[in-house]
Specification:
This is SYT1 protein. It holds the Pfam family C2. It comes from Nycticryphes semicollaris. Helices cover about 25% and strands about 40% of the residues. It has about 400 residues and is an alpha+beta fold. Among the domains are: about 130 residues, Immunoglobulin-like; about 140 residues, C2 domain (Immunoglobulin-like), CATH 2.60.40. The strands form four sheets. Strands 13, 14, 15, 16, 18 and 19 form a six-stranded antiparallel beta sheet that branches. Strands 1, 2, 6, 7 and 10 form a five-stranded antiparallel beta sheet that branches. A hairpin with an 8-residue loop joins strand 3 and strand 4. The termini are far apart. About 15% of the residues have low confidence.
């Protein structure tokens, strides 16, 4: 029996001695594998960080190389027309003729100096230089040499210029104008003194010069939102003389809106259901007759307490001088005692691949006199529609 006990103990000791090194080997092996995987993950993370840094350096280099680069666009349609032979002929004029016909309407300092050398006042938004030439034979107005300086610096900003040709229209509405043509220049990136290589051609008869005005708006381009307007320059084309190059240098002025039509809107207050009914009845526009074959639609936006309700659109209508909509739109509103809202009516002209803003009318408690009166009448006339004409501005 003692021998059997001794044999059993020896067997158990042998088994225990065999199990201990086996389990430790597995533990160390798993630990080593975990360390290897951690090193691989750190290596991959380091490679990704290096690639990201290389991409950022490449982007910075591309931005530096593209600074003050001008790309000339010569496309037909709304963006402009190709360079006519007349423009090449005018560049061959003598220096004496050009200097005699040059009119400087801004600062008289050297145009090649910076904004500080020009001595612009602190409130100035910048200066715009351009040249105009009217040809009687072709009934065309040429706009070239667009250049701006002294613009407010806002980091890596992108600048562009919107050009509009306006013409006065006889009407009972004072200051009513018709927008004949509209273009937008190229976008110049990362440049304190952008030079726009665009040139624009306007078809304009000699009898229409005195009634026409050229409006140029300098804007900060933003592809994700609306462009911020820095200022504008207006030129009355009656100052032009035939076949003479007119060089203008003007400071940017505060932008103003132009009346291009009117719209009949009705407002109805529904305090029980906490809603407002916006009725779009009619609209009068002053667009040229060439747009008669196109369609238009209206978009209604309501802003209340810095919150915008979901906009609504009307059905498309034919673009005629008098557009009949006769549609109503309901918007949710807060308590009547806290109403401090704004209604924005925008009318767009739609094309095959784009849309064009014709004009906008703004109604609300804090707007102009007529819009504020209309809003007060709506508050007083509970559950009764109140209609009134409002000017379309652009």
């Amino acid at each position: 029996e003692e021998k059997d006990m001794i044999q059993k103990r020896s067997v158990m000791l042998d088994l225990h001695s065999l199990q201990m090194p086996f389990s430790n080997t597995w533990k160390y092996g798993i630990l080593a594998l975990a360390i290897v995987l951690l090193l691989v993950a750190l290596t991959i993370l380091t490679c990704q960080i290096c690639q990201l840094q290389k991409r950022n350096r490449t982007r910075k280099k591309k931005r530096c190389h593209s600074q003050c680069r001008v790309r000339i666009k010569a496309e037909n349609g709304i963006w402009g027309k190709k360079m006519p032979s007349l423009l090449h002929d005018t560049t061959m004029q003598s220096n004496a003729d050009t200097q005699a016909s040059t009119l400087m309407l801004g600062r008289t300092e050297d145009l090649s100096s910076t904004s500080s050398d020009l001595g612009l006042p602190p409130c100035s938004q910048g200066t715009l230089k351009f040249s105009l030439l009217y040809c009687i034979e072709r009934c065309e107005l040429l706009l070239t040499g667009l250049e701006a300086w002294g613009l407010p610096r806002r980091g890596c900003a992108e600048s562009t210029i919107r050009v509009r040709l306006l013409r006065q229209v006889p009407s009972h509405i004072p200051g009513l104008q018709c927008m004949v043509q509209e273009w937008q220049s190229q976008v110049v990136k990362n440049c304190n003194r952008p030079a726009f290589g665009d040139h624009f051609v306007f078809s304009l008869k000699d009898a229409e010069l005195e009634k026409s005005t050229l409006k140029l708006e300098v804007q900060r381009f933003d592809k994700y939102s609306r462009n911020a307007v820095l200022g504008e320059v207006r030129v009355t084309l009656s100052e032009l003389k035939a076949s003479q190059n007119l060089v203008l240098c003007k400071e940017l002025q505060k932008t103003t809106k132009d009346i291009v039509g009117e719209v009949l809107v009705s407002l109805k207050c529904l305090p029980i259901s906490q809603r407002i009914e916006v009725g779009l009845l009619k609209a009068k526009t002053t667009s040229p007759a060439s747009t008669a074959e196109k369609n238009v639609y209206a978009r209604i936006d309501v802003f209340c307490r810095r919150h915008r309700e979901k906009h609504q659109k009307s059905r498309p209508r034919a673009h005629t001088p008098l557009i009949i909509f006769n549609e109503t739109f309901l918007f949710h509103m807060p308590e009547p005692g806290a109403w401090d809202c704004t209604v924005l009516v925008s009318i767009y002209e739609v094309d095959s691949d784009s849309r064009h803003l014709i004009g906008q009318a703004t109604l609300g408690k804090r707007r102009a006199n007529e819009a504020a009166d209309h809003w007060d009448l709506m508050i007083k006339s509970i559950q009764q529609p109140v209609a009134k004409w409002h000017p379309l501005l652009i």
